[in-house]
Known about the structure:
The complex is a heterodimer of chains A (258) and B (406). With 258 residues, chain A is α/β, with parallel strands linked by helices. Chain A has helices spanning 55-62, 85-95, 111-120, 133-139, 156-168, 186-201, 213-217, 242-245; strands at residues 13-22, 29-39, 44-48, 70-75, 78-79, 96-99, 174-178, 206-210, 221-226, 229-235. Chain A has eight helices and ten strands. In chain A, helix 4 (133-139) crosses helix 5 (156-168). Mean pLDDT of chain A is 87; it is low at 247-258. In chain B, the strands form two sheets. Chain B has a six-stranded mixed barrel with strand order 2-3-10-5-7-6. A two-stranded antiparallel sheet of chain B has the order 8-9.
Amino acid sequence: xxxxxxxxxxxxALLRDVRKTYGQGAAAVHAxxxxxxxxxxxxxxxxxxxxxxxxSTLLHILGCMxxxxxxxxxxxxxxxxxxxxxxxxxLRSERIGFVFQSFHLLRDLxxxxxxxxxxxxxxxxEGKELPSAEELxxxxxxxxxxxxxxxxxxxxxxxxxxxxxxxxxxAPSLLLGDEPTGNLDTVNSEAVMQVFEHLWSEGAxxxxxxxNPEVAERAQRVVxxxxxxxxxxxxHSRRPPAEALAPKEGSAQGEGTP
Amino acid sequence: MTTRGGxxxxxxxxxxxxxxxxxxxxxxxxAVTLLLTSAVVGNEESFIAEVNNLAVNWIYVQPSVPYYxxxxxxxxxxxxxxxxxxxxxxxxxxxxxxxxxxxxxxSVITLTGTTGALTSIFAFSKVQGSFDLAPPSTPGAPxxxxxxxxxxTEHDLSVGQTLPAQVVNILPSxxxxxxxxxxxxxxxxxxxxxxxxxxxxQAALVPISTLVNLTGQPTLTYIFASAANSGEVxxxxxxxxxxxxxxxxxxxxxxxxxQQSEVQFVLQQIGQFQTIIQLVEMTLLMLSAFxxxxxxxxxxKDRRREIGVLRALGAERADVMVQFLLESGLMSxxxxxxxxxxxxxxxxxxxxxxTGFYSALVTNPIDxxxxxxxxxxxxxFVGFLFxxxxxxxxxxxxxxxxxxxx
Lengths: 258, 406
């Protein structure tokens, strides 16, 4: 079991002996082969590994988008059921925010509508105070004027920050990113990483899958995956840099023309 | 606030071509069906009203072959004398009357040779004069004539006035034989309108025996009779049939119709028309359903990534299914709304510009009542059914797989 746990606190994510196999018999592919992972509240974890190492499968299982063939998964101490797609979806809706490499904003909706989209499916708020679209856009350091634009009218860097804001709209316990800087240039990658660091500084729990060592360098912990196993963990024992702690609403960095 | 309905609307508007296709088929289906239904319902009511308004418990005897005249005044008298339940019998002989003095330019109308009984059978109101249509007592004396409302009001005529005219009888050989006569107006009828496509306000009634003599035609065009009550119409019709068959030496060279059989006939005709309409409706229904099925199937295929995103953001399978059903429902509702609008405009236009069949069209869809509601409900429901499979397929997509394909 990796990761330290403050006494008595329930980890945000807990995986025990998780295995995932695709296919059967000779054609079987063992994507995960007994992974144990604990993500504590407020942690910033980067998962690295070569293509086919199982890191995306691990992320999907963490995000309740896929189920392990065996093993146990719990989010916020709630076991993730293997059988019930509905319950898994509910867990995802209430406790997880997802950021994709390709942003996946819905092009027919404005930025504001994209930010509000996850709430359509949020059935139990459990007393959570959900941030408004204005608060969300400020959190990712974008100007409010973008709220009424369509995804095709903003730059890639802005789109990814909107996608991060959308992932935050249900006030998730766990923010997951699948190569969130994979489709961005250096400048926009930096802007996006600053947003992640800022969110981390505010107490968010973040798990990113990345190929990029510079991105992984910004995390508190790096989990290296190979052949479906966790092969090594590195602890950076760092906190977010000071500049990330101060929100910069409407930062020009990373804003481009559509 | 973003809603499922708003989302459905956005997708509907984005896919203009496909949405247009579905909306157009629904619009056409509803508009055409509305037009046909409006015609059937309107004309059914109109036809039945005409049949019932024609006369009082009427029975009608006509030759079974056009232009062949087997009926005689003797047949009419026999019906009056021998058929139980008959209260009035009116023999009818039509001939042309040329009233040159009326307008200066000549005016040919149809003279109806009959008896005074016709005014009671046709339930005319009597404005002034006598209506027994007794033949003139002396040869060459003016012939009594009773005029319909439009004739006497248009020409400003009154009782006692004499009218020089020619009776124009079309001969079997094809020629005509005009006979100069003088009519004297003995009675003026009240307004009755056009019933069963007969303009009763143009009636010009003269004594049957006189018209038979003038035209040299011993046979009749029709015989009209009236039963004492509706319960006796059918039995009296049967009795007339038997009586005339016997009088015609067993030859059924005539047919007997009555108010009830005519209503049945009208209903039967309308029933056949309705069957054709139902076939048309069914075809349009299947076209609409097919269009929505094809469009929704294509939408699911094209929007796998979006479905994956929605699932990743917390949409359950049921949410995805509802989303697609909302879209198809919205398209069909818009199509049906436009169809009702277009159909109503078309019906109103045809009613305004057309006559006869078109004048009876029902212009307000609400007046079509249950039939119309049923039509819309069936159309919507079939669209819903045909959307279920694509919507279900969309809901079965796994988020990971849908997103991985991109």
